[in-house]
Amino acid sequence: MGSSFSSATKPKIFYPPSPEEILVKKPGGGVGPESLSKLVEEHCPSLKKEFNPPWWLNNGHLQTLFSVAGDFTSVDKVVYERTYLRLMDGGTLGLDFTPPGDTSPDDAPIVVVCHGLTGGSYEAYVRAVLAPACAPVSEGGLGYRAVVVNFRGCAGVPVTSKQLYSAGWTEDLRMATIYLAHKYPRAPQLGLGFSLGANVMVRYLAEEGERSRLESACVLGNPWDLVKNNWALEHTFLGKHIYSKGMANNLVNVLKLHSKALEKVDPPTPSATSKYEPDSTQASLVCAAYHAALALRSPPLSVFDNTFTRVGGGGPPDWPLASADAYYKHSSSHHVVPQVRKPLLAINSTDDPVVVHAPTSPEEVGSGYTVVVLTEGGGHLGWFEPSSGIVLIGTDVSKLHVRRWMTKPTLEWLRLAAEVLVHGHPDHPPRAIFVDEGGWIREVNGARQGLGCRAVEIGDLIDGTELKKEPGMFQGL
Questions:
Q1: 16 prior amide bond cis, ω within 30
Q2: Which residues pair with 80 in a beta bridge?
Q3: N or C: which end of the chain has fewer CB within 10 A?
Q4: Phi-psi label, residue 95: left if phi above 0, alpha if psi -120 to 50, beta otherwise
Q5: Other beta carbons less than 10 A from residue 153's beta carbon
């Protein structure tokens, strides 16, 4: 893959050689098995429609740069209500729910969103899906609930421990799904991941297998093989000096924003409610990595990852990792696809300048649950096309009328997953949830000792178009 000039073409759909038989609700009542490929053919017709970029966004670089530099504040209005989750390791997640006010039915499907590298709920690519997905049915929407899992330090979420996030750290998404299952036990959870968040989501699905709390997922712009991507970025001028350094610049700015939490090792403060104590050695390593990262001058992504992410991008026992290359090998998602046991739709662009490969061969996919779609244009999380067949200029000549091609097929997949598929696996249910004596929401026989959370603050209303990216940060990545 890579950037090239593109015109109107139909996407290529790669079905598994032996598509899984998925249990579905039958129109006349009852349930029965149906081939995943047949379900996609019937319920996701937009995947067969051409992606037709406008003439002025006719390659992957232009699509990607417009996603970064465009003004999307006037479209896809979404209002969120934020809940902060305090984790047992001391960290904090920001869950942005929409629609606010908890007015949806208790069993309304929940779209669980993981954003890109340094993004959040404000990202235009997130709102392009959630605005119609969460609009009332009476207004043409799906009527679903959604929650954006804002990673530690992103979108105004404070850093309250010596750890951030990374492409390979799945525990925060896992904890968010546990909290949602506790709060809305009757609601199916549907995954939606973008870029780095897509990678996290695929790894979560593979780790959980049949017991995944996500009933399905749609992932867009997944980087898949981080080793190949890094090599490709390092070996082209634009890759190294625009994309790689641009992404590293965002990450450096995340560290600067949270300097008070990362610049020194605080004395240990035992928790009155949690028996889990953070690793003091890891905290010292993260503090040292923070200072080393801030001393870098315009680093490419691999240098930043070798300096900080391999140390502070996760927690014990896997972190710290030996090098950036070890981090990329550990955190890639292309090699875990065969372990996915929930329906997964993956959409990538062949001219994505930061993602050079997507798994399409039977040997790479290895799972009857996974469908991969490649468009011949769209860049990285762009997929912009004219909103009417031609490029229109409205009353404000600075705003060109475009829409994202990916919105329709994503909504079709979400509706299929929510309203057609049978949810839950009778032989492999998710682990039971309990609240311990300290008030922490946890799993019975959870895989990690320190996995638990509790809500510490609820109620802030946030306009997704007004929640600004932090100074010096690029949107859309």
A1: no
A2: 462
A3: N
A4: beta
A5: 26
369: amino acid identity, one letter: Y
Backbone angles phi, psi at 162, to 5 degrees: -90, 60
Report pLDDT for 302.
97
C-alpha–C-alpha distance, residues 92 and 158, integer Å? 7
pLDDT in tens, 118-158: 999 999 999 999 999 999 999 999 999 999 999 999 999 99
Q: Which residue has the higher pLDDT, 198 or 31?
A: 198
Of the candidates 66, 69, 48, 68, the one whose C-alpha atom is nearest the C-alpha of residue 58 is: 66
Q: Among 475, 451, 476, which residue's Cα sits nearest to residue 204? A: 451
* The pLDDT of residue 74: 85
* pTM of structure: 0.93
Report the distance separating Cα 267 and Cα 259, nearest Å: 17
Residue (of 183, 129, 173, 134) closest to 409 by Cα position: 129
Secondary structure, 3-state, the chain: CCCCECCCECCEEECCCCCCEEEEECCCCCEEEEEHHHHHHHHCHHHHCCECCCHHHCEHHHHHHHHHHCCCCCCCCCEEEEEEEEECCCCEEEEEEECCCCCCCCCCCEEEEECCCCCCCCCHHHHHHHHHHHCCHHHCCCCCEEEEEECCCCCCCCCCCCCCCCCCCCHHHHHHHHHHHHHCCCCCEEEEEECHHHHHHHHHHHHHHHHCCEEEEEEECCCCCHHHHHHHHHCCHHHHHHHHHHHHHHHHHHHHHCHHHHCCCCCCCCCCCCCCCCCHHHHHHHHHHHHHHHCCCCCCHHHHHHHHHHHHCCCCCCCCCCCHHHHHHHHCCHHHHHHCCCCEEEEEECCCCCCCCCCCCHHHHCCCCEEEEEECCCCCCCCEEECCCCCCECCCCCCECEEECCHHHHHHHHHHHHHCECCCCCCCCCCCEEECCCCCEEECCCCCCCCCEEEEEEEEEEECCCCCCCCCCCCCC
Q: How far is CA 34 from the centre of its chain?
A: 28
Please state, rounded to an integer, the average pLDDT across all residues of the chain.
90
Q: For residue 304, which of 264, 248, 351, 358 has the smallest C-alpha distance?
A: 248
The number of beta carbons lying within 10 Å of the beta carbon of residue 446 is 16
- The letter for the amino acid at 260 is K
| Distance (Å, whole) CA 294 – CA 169 | 22
What's CA 296's distance to the chain center, in Å? Answer: 28
| Whether 72 contacts 398, CB under 8 Å | no
Answer yes or no: are the C-beta atoms of 62 and 379 closer than 8 Å.
Answer: yes
Residue of 357, 318, 323 whose CA lies nearest to 447: 318
